[in-house]
């Protein structure tokens, strides 16, 4: 009997643990004010959930469908895990094809619906069709969160458009950031402070069109060293509230003075053509005197187009509404910005816990999109919707609930108000797709794309736009016949 | 329960500013870290602390802290 005691002990212990598994539910129980979590019976038995019927986390039982006179927006069914695998494998295969005419087909993910006789992207297409002959470069402002910060995604789009249109340099470069960019190397020296419309807000001064502004303490030498990883022909400084004793000197890495400028314009937003005597890729921007509000610099072609990256980590995008309409219109006019790409949503998933919070964000996004639409009355706005995001639920990764519903609201607001919409959530495969994207090395579980994932997504966006561009050219030629 | 003092404590916790002093005219523009994301967290705390429920319509109408204080007063 004595020698069997350890065996009996193990059996009693296992029995006790099995009882605990059955009693304690997934979300834990409170015992003496302490929440206890335990492995669920499904996890213990390693049962995989059937994702096609996984409606238990969806708060809303009805789908939101947008209707206008002639537009009915599709509603999608969830794909099974095996269907997602097949679908995503096909996306990977397609991304390896050449980007020639025969591979550019109509995209089910891009909505460019005619409203009041006008297609949302026509202004953009008109610009690119005239880009080579026009003397003035036009800009596309790409706003988003950590999905694009550090020039991610924007850099890919720039590269894709460069294959067909004139698009040189790296566009907008902020003086400081919390992430390392992919298209240039930056070192901020001295005492720069970054203020944004989201965190560390500034009073009494203005923000640039990207929602940020940089100021330095004049008692210390303040400079920014840049290594631009792409050739360019023109460099610009964007600033406000200059002073008579403020100067900017731009040096090459060999300490040759390439340009010197008086930063003395007092108005909110000014653009200086830096007129560098040589377009070096290693530069030092040295500021002397009281700090102006520096919005950033840019490196561009002489003409053609340029994509500017305005990535703001961890944000839903609503802070950009703190930039007054009049300021945004003024800045867009002065920089010749003709299109805004607005890509937010991933950061709101944790906050969508009820119909109220879902509609709260729906209202926020409607207002945000209209903010850009009003500032670009003669331009185009492309909304890129929310992507799939997952989190751990008792050790198993599942998509956050209601992302599809959030996408529906974003899509509705865009389409009904004359803006184009790209459905990145559906491109990924919809509910629980990010799990498969992660397994195939295309994205992290929280939805951030890897280099491979970004390549797929940006190519799909580019091809979708190019197909619509072809349709625009056909329409334009018919009008002139 | 003093509405302003209690609300101030909520604001200090949610917006991570131990020195924050709220006033009726204050808006999101006056407070770093006050974004839509933290706004919903703040509203949830307000609802739990004051034992009230705010509708979506009421949330959308809020323009400044004074509006929120009036709403809490009305519903408490």
Just name the CATH architecture of chain B.
Answer: Orthogonal Bundle
Structural class of chain B: mainly alpha
How many DSSP helices of chain A?
11
The CATH C-level name of chain B is: Mainly Alpha
The fraction of residues assigned to DSSP E strands of chain B is under 5%
Radius of gyration of chain A over all CA atoms, rounded: 26 Å
- Indicate how many domains the architecture of chain B comprises: 1
> How much β-strand is present in the residues of chain A?
15-25%
Biggest sheet descriptor of chain B: none
The proportion of residues forming helix of chain B, as a percent range, comes to 55-70%
Query: How many beta strands in the DSSP annotation of chain B?
Result: 0
Percent helix of chain A, as a range, is 25-40%
Mean pLDDT of chain A: 89
Description:
The complex is a heterodimer of chains A (481) and B (76). Chain A has a six-stranded mixed sheet, with helices on both faces. A five-stranded antiparallel sheet of chain A has the order 6-9-14-11-12, with no helix packed on it. A four-stranded antiparallel sheet of chain A has the order 5-15-10-13, with helices on one face. Chain A is built from eleven helices and 21 strands. By secondary structure, chain A is of the alpha+beta class. With 76 residues, chain B is an all-alpha fold. Chain B is built from four helices and no strands. Chain B starts with a helix and ends with a helix. The model of chain B has no long low-confidence stretch (mean pLDDT 94).
